[in-house]
Design goal:
The complex is a heterodimer. Chain A has a ten-stranded mixed β-sheet, with helices on both faces. The radius of gyration of chain A is 18 Å and the shape is globular. Chain A is built from ten helices and ten strands. Chain A is α/β, with parallel strands linked by helices. Chain B is an all-alpha fold. Chain B has one domain: MetI-like fold (Orthogonal Bundle), CATH 1.10.3720.10. Helices cover 74% and strands 0% of the residues of chain B. Chain B has twelve helices and no strands. In chain B, helix 4 packs antiparallel against helix 9 and helix 4 packs across helix 11. The radius of gyration of chain B is 27 Å and the shape is flat. The two termini of chain B are 45 Å apart. Classes of the chains: A alpha/beta, B mainly alpha. Chains A and B meet through helix 2, strand 6, helix 3 and helix 6 of A and helix 8 and helix 9 of B.
Amino acid sequence: MAKRLDLKDVDIYYGDFHAVQNVNLSVPPRSVTSFIGPSGCGKSTVLRTLNRMHEEIPGARVEGQIQLDGEDIYARGSDAVAVRRTIGMVFQRPNPFPTMSIRDNVVAGLKLQGVRDKKKLDEVCEASLRGANLWKEVSGRLDKPGGGLSGGQQQRLCIARAIAVQPDVLLMDEPCSALDPISTLAIEDLIGDLKKDYTIVIVTHNMQQAARVSDQTAFFNLEATGKPGHLVEIDDTEKIFSNPTERETEDYISGRFG
Amino acid sequence: MSAALDAPERPAAPATFRNVSTARKIKDRLATVLVSLAFLIAVIPLVWLLVSVLIKGFPAIVSADWWTRSLSGVTPDEVRGGVYHAIVGTLVQAVISGVIAVPVGILAAVYLVEYGRGRLAKTTSFMVDILSGVPSIVAALFIFALFVSIVGLEQSGFLVGLALVLLMLPVVIRNTEEMLRLVPDELREASYALGIPKWKTILRIVLPTALSGTITGVMLAFARVMGETAPVLVLVGYARAINFNPFEGNQASLPLLIYTELSTNPSAAGQLRIWGGALTLILIVMLFQLAASLISRYSAISK
C-alpha cells in the first residue's frame, strides 16, 4: 500500500494548447499533499494526469515522466485501467451510482472487477464504510439507494467506494467544494485518518483547508490567461503559509494577487 | 433607492405594484385568449377522432369473438367472426422488426455516444437522420425491390417486419442516444477511477442508468410501427384466416384488414369491422404506451 509519486519534467497539452509547463514534484507515501492556486492554473489538470483520467478528454497528452514507486505509469504497454486500480480518485461533486444501493456502490469496483465472493464483499463493504466514517450512519440501510444520502454522506460514500478497491494513492479533486462546513470538517478529519494508509493528493481552493489537512503544499500559478500554468513552489505546508520562498506565493496566500 | 426605503414618512400604501396600465391588461388578456384558443384547436380534432372511433367501433369490439376468432368462413355482409388473425399478424410483424431493430439500434446509439469520433460517427449520424425522413412507402418498396424482385422471395409477413426495421431503427437510435447523453460524465469518470474498463462501465453503469428511458423509447417505437400501412400493402397479401407463420403465405394485420374492408366491403358489417379494427389498433398502441410509462415509473432511478 501507499506508494510514492514522482513527477519529472511533466508538460500537459490539450491539442495545441500548452496547459501546464514543466512540473517537478514528489509526493512521499503516507502523507497529504495539497495543490493550491488560482482557477485555470492547471492544478486539477495535473491531478487528473496522475491516474491518466485526462485521457478521457480528446487531444489531451502528457510529456515527461510520472512514476509510482519508480514505475512510469505512462510507460509503453502500461494500461490506464490498471493504473486507475492503483490510483483512486474522489471528485468535486459526489457521484454515487444512481442505480445501485449503498452496499453496491461501495463494492462496485470489486464487483465489476469480477469478485463474486459475497462474504468478502460484505467484509470490504463494512471495512470501507468504517474507513470513511460512514458505517454508523448507514449500517441499517445498506440496501437503500446511495442517492438518498445527504451531500456530505454521499461524498464519504464515494470515498468509501474509492478505498474499497484498495488503491495505493488517493487523488481528491476539490472534494469539499460542494459541501457545507460540517460535512467539510467530517471529510477533513477523514483525510487525517486515511493518511495512515494512503498517499493522498488533494486539490483545493480553500487555503485554510490546505493548511489544516496537508503535510506539504504545492502552489501553481499562471502568468496570464492563455499561458501555460506552472508549479511555483512546493514545500512543507507550514513553511508555505508562514514563510514561502517565492514572492508570488506570499502574494497569493495573503490575498495580494491580480 | 435605499434612502427612500429608510425615510421615516413613507406614503401610506403606495400603489406602485397595482398600477398596471390598461394597454398591458388588454395585451395580457389577448395573449391568454389566443393561447387557449390554439390549444382548443389542437385538441378538437384529437378528441373528435377518439370519440367517433370509440362510438362507431365499440359495438364491434365488445363481442368475445372479436378478440378470439378470425374472419375465416365469414361472408362479407355477416356480422360475425373477429380480428384475432389481424392482431396476431400485427404483433408478429412488430416483434420481427423489434428483434432486429432494438439490438442494432441500441448498439448504434452506444457507438455514437460512447465511441463515435470523427468521420464514421458523423456519417452514421447523418444516415440516421436520412433514415428517419424516409417515407414508409419508400422503405416498403426498397424491401420489395431487394427481396422480391432481386432475391426472388415470396411476399410475406417477414418482409413486412424487415420494412418496419427501417422505420423503427432511427426512432430507437435517436431516443437511446438522447438517454445515453443524459447520463452524466461524472458517473463514467467515477467508474473509470475505480479501475473499471470502458466496456464494463457502459454495460453496468451507463446502460442501467439510461434503462428506463430507453425502454420507454423502444415501446413508443413499437407503437409507431404497428400502425404503419404502406409496408403491409406492398409486402404481404391479406388473409381472412389465422396465420402464425410470417415466412409463408398471406398474413393479415390491423391496418391491412381496415384497408381491405374499406376497399372491398361496402356493407354495414364491413363498416363495423373498419371502425372496430381502428379502435383495436388504437387500444393496442395505447397499451404499449401505458406499458412504457409504467416501466419508466417503476424502474425510475430512486432518489
